[in-house]
Amino acid sequence: MSVRYKKSEEYLQRALKTVPLGSQTFTKSKTQLPHGVSPYFAEKGMGAYLWDVDGNRYIDFANSLCSITLGYNDEDVNKAVADQLTQGTIFSLAHPLEFKVAEKIVEMVPCAEMVRFGKNGSDATSGAIRLARAFTGRDHVIVCGYHGWQDWYIGSTTRDLGVPKAVKDLTHKFVYNDIQSLHTKLNELKGQVAAVILEPVNTTPPENDFLSKVKELTQQHGALLIFDETITGFRYANGGAQEFFGVTPDLASFGKGLANGYPLSAVAGRADVMRLMEEIFFSFTFGGETLSLAASYAVLNKLQNKPVVKRLFEIGGILIARLKKEIEDYKLGHIFSVAGYPVWSFLVIKDTEQFGSWEIKTLLVQEMFSKGIFTLGTHNISYAHQEEDVDALIRSYRSFFEILLQAIKDKDLRSHLQCEPLKPLFKVR
């Protein structure tokens, strides 16, 4: 048992008796956190920092899977939630915060004319798909990216256990930045496609006016265009990636950045489509839960009144520039590259003749955690991050690169690992 992570590992063994994988979220479970070198349970978070149950502090570059945009325990969000808590969390009637937060989203998001709330990103994407099917009278959907756990989407991945074949057969994939792949699918399913749904951006920037071409092609075939902005919303711009790239979809889903860690998601879009929410069934007992709505109202106000997104780009830009230079200085460009945008960037790892990318990633995670950096290979910037946090991250990357160079020289990476290598969860892109 690890001394550094003693309590975490004890808690994991306890949790595994009652909780499958010991966590509610795959990415927070032992599937992505190598045993023996990882924390498993958090104690608290403050600003840019996370503490595990063993008392170890980390500069957090995961930020709860991109759901923390302002930083942990943001004082404005805390005050809004505390004030609302004295009034109550859920009632036998709707609460004014439901339309006040909706009005804010309509102010900020280009496609938003009407809004409905859920709790998880999967609620919002699934609600958007049901709307599109109701509006078009069609059944098939074409997807690109990750869109949640529900049957209509997850049946198109390798994590499809328990999804009926009839459902799987209605979902089809296309390739990002390959407009011909979408064209081919739409022609194969001519007149049957209800919606094209995609993450407007992930690791790779859109090329050759890709998003505009997706919109044009989708409209030509009478389908609705849905942007899954669960991550990009309120991170790339106040109006999401659709504002950032200047392409407005028919519908969009939002989640992680909406309430700075409180459980809230939203479907937003054209009024003529959204009014079908009165006919389809998309209803939650806790859809109008007021603590998350109060948090969201505070978040959206802060986004409008403070240079949040500007700051994310500034800090993230410094990080990317410095990390690229380190990769160049260590002559490791054949293994590593940096992808994405400053607000959400990625260390891309390639297989080598000697080592697989997942072995290298395991070493990365092991070394970062040991040095008080929480990252799984991404840099999810928050408003709380400072330049000195980037300094600490870069120092940790240097240490990792030096260990890897020694492993390459010795043709032996396993001796540097204190755990078994990670394996991929599932591939969606």
Q: Which terms summarize this structure?
A:
429 residues, alpha/beta, Aspartate Aminotransferase, domain 1, Aspartate Aminotransferase, domain 2, 2 domains, seven-stranded mixed sheet, four-stranded mixed sheet, 14 strands, globular
Can you put this structure into words, describing what you see?
The protein is α/β, with parallel strands linked by helices and 429 residues long. The chain folds into two domains: 6-61 and 308-416, Alpha-Beta Complex (Aspartate Aminotransferase, domain 1); 75-305, Type I PLP-dependent aspartate aminotransferase-like (Major domain) (Aspartate Aminotransferase, domain 2, 3-Layer(aba) Sandwich), CATH 3.40.640. Helices cover 39% and strands 15% of the residues. It is built from 15 helices and 14 strands. It has helices at 6-15, 63-66, 75-85, 97-108, 121-136, 151-154, 165-168, 179-188, 210-220, 240-245, 271-274, 290-305, 308-329, 357-370, 387-410, and strands at 42-46, 49-52, 57-60, 114-118, 140-144, 171-173, 193-198, 224-229, 251-254, 265-269, 336-341, 344-349, 373-374, 378-380. The strands form three sheets. It has a seven-stranded mixed β-sheet with strand order 4-10-9-8-7-5-6, sandwiched between helices. Strands 1-2-3-13 form a four-stranded mixed β-sheet. Strand 2 (49-52) and strand 3 (57-60) form a beta hairpin. Helix 14 (357-370) crosses helix 15. The chain is globular, with a radius of gyration of 22 Å. The two termini are 36 Å apart. The model has no long low-confidence stretch (mean pLDDT 96).
